[in-house]
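User: I'm preparing a small set of examples for a lab meeting where we compare how different chains pack in three dimensions. I only have the primary sequence for this one, and I'd like the structure in token form so I can line it up with the others. Please keep the answer compact; I'll paste it straight into my notes.
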Amino acid sequence: MDTEVKTTALESSKKALDLTYQKNEISKEIYEKLLELHEVRNKDFDEFLAYLKSDITNQNLKKEKAVVAFSGGVDSTTSIIVANNIFEICAVTVRSKYIMDAKTEQSILELTNSLNISHEFIDVNLNPIFEDTKSGKYHPCGRCHSTVEAEILNYAEKNGIKYIIYGDMLSIGHLSIKKVDKGINRLNILSFLSVAKDESRIILNEFKIDINQSYGCQLIRKAHKHKSMQKFTIQRILREVRAQVITPEEGLKNILDVIKI
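Assistant: Understood. Below is the structure token output for the 261-residue chain.
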């Protein structure tokens, strides 16, 4: 990520954090720990890595709970590693046969066991979205994403959890931390820290985690059988390239995955 882009994004996310605290939407302890993490990230990346691996971040802090929307991919796994320095993590995976096979489920279980965090699957009905995708009526991502977010929010509400963490890297700057509903705060922690995908892979490597996935889930690959739907996915990939959260090389690879060249 270009230094100027990173600096601008970090300045914006810092303002969002300050505003959230000024509105009394987060506790002083969480504010201070997020601020500390933000300041370390603003320095040398090796120092940031060392901070994530150290025990000092866990001292003298009674951790509040946070739900992490966990897909088992690079972004959500890195989000857990980063957020675990501040929160007591509960990973929640929204499960459907249309977006997850048995191999992916097993991988998720192995990951959460290795990370030593609690984890739950929540089953969700995606039949209408699948049928509309199969027929070429709608691209699935928007509706699927909304369904997943609603399930995660409902889980947080039922369990009295005030923080939901997502790995989506496009919610940059002031959008990276915000109140969403009933005293619950949404934190896109990688966006908050301007951590690009290649940096996430370095973090995972430091924690001896190797994740190799092709682009997209089963449902989105079903959508790509319709040429008209490929362009919507490609537009998102290009947004990620423009935001510099993925490199042009990775963007090209993902596009080729979409169009199957």
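A couple of notes for your slides: The chain has one domain: 3-213. DSSP finds twelve helices and six strands in the chain.

User: Perfect, thanks.
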